[in-house]
Hints:
Layout: H1 2-19, E1 24-25, H2 42-52, H3 59-70, H4 76-86, E2 87-93, E3 101-108, E4 110-114, E5 123-126, E6 133-136, E7 148-154, E8 157-159, H5 164-169, E9 178-182, H6 185-194, E10 196-200, E11 206-214, H7 222-228, H8 239-248, H9 253-257, E12 264-269, E13 289-291, E14 302-309, E15 312-325, E16 335-342, H10 344-352, E17 354-364
Parallel strand pairs: 3-16, 4-10, 13-15
Antiparallel strand pairs: 1-2, 2-17, 3-17, 4-9, 5-9, 6-7, 7-8, 10-11, 11-12, 13-16, 14-15, 14-17
Helix pairs in contact: 2-4
Amino acid sequence: MLKSLFSITLVVLLASACATRPPGIGEPVDWGDLQDWAADDHADALQGFLRGCPKLEQARWREVCDLAATNGELDDVGARAFFESHFEVRPVYAEGGDTEGLITGYYEPLLQGSRERSDEFRYPLYGVPENLLVIELGEIYPQLKDLRLRGKLVGNRVVPYYDRAQLDAQPQLLEGAEILWVDSAVDVFFLHVQGSGLVELTDGSLTGVGYAQQNGHPYQSIGRVLVEMGELEQDAVTLFTIKDWLRANPDRLREILGKNPSYIFFQLRDAAADGPVGSLNVALTPRRSIAVDRNVIPLGAPVWLQTTLPDDSRSPMNQLMLAQDTGGAIKGHVRADVFWGRGDEAEKLAGRMKQRGQLFVLLPRGYPLD
């Protein structure tokens, strides 16, 4: 009897282990498994993919990029055939074998600013400070490629750089690194969250600002902080409800913002350029580029997204995206952030997007997975 119970238990455990898929990129599936695959604008997606090709170094990526270049400009039917001929589609799994994860959005905000400090424009945007050390660990240990250590020197020791609370409380720590001044501390914080944006200056001209570096501290969601404090309901957390709370509680602004120790340093860029530059170092395409966790999905890869629109959860948003960016909050297997572009509509969509969705990575046939 004991032996029978042991055998049954072992069978159940083995079956359970086999049924649970490990997190990460799975085995290839059929193109027919992608909802609305035939309805997408494949020519547009292929052009977006080609813009990232010069940044792709792995051999199989180079081969498929060269094939695409020799084909010339393809129409939608030809582009779809190219993807189906040279790529295989693989689902991404989260912990426990779940295929759904969180899909959010980001955009290019517009701030009001000046090149000079004044009573109205007194909140600085900083360039990279001279005392920030960035150590590329992959140059020392190849197995740590794409990992970096940030800090500052104290004597002959490298110690963590200042966090947000320290930098906000002691502006003299970054004195001399100011590149622009704006009129809202709340807008500065959300520019840090978005990573890039536009600033309208007092003479009516526009300048762009883009991510240059980060202080090395992890991103923490202040929306989650406000929920844990009982100030907001989980289902009500959006860009707009967080902004409203911060503006209604100016006496607690520094306290709450300091809960996110991450701090972004910027560089000026051309506002008339194609778009902000993502982590792949190519201009992002509105409604086509996404930020992903590069430890899961290779930067530059086409990714089929299946989710719903943020302004109508009944309307599907199924299309081919391009993994061209990363973000401090974008961590995990089934996790993506859709770049919506600039303007009021982009802000509305990005600010409200908090959908469930699935990701399928398109990889060149024969692409090695570690």
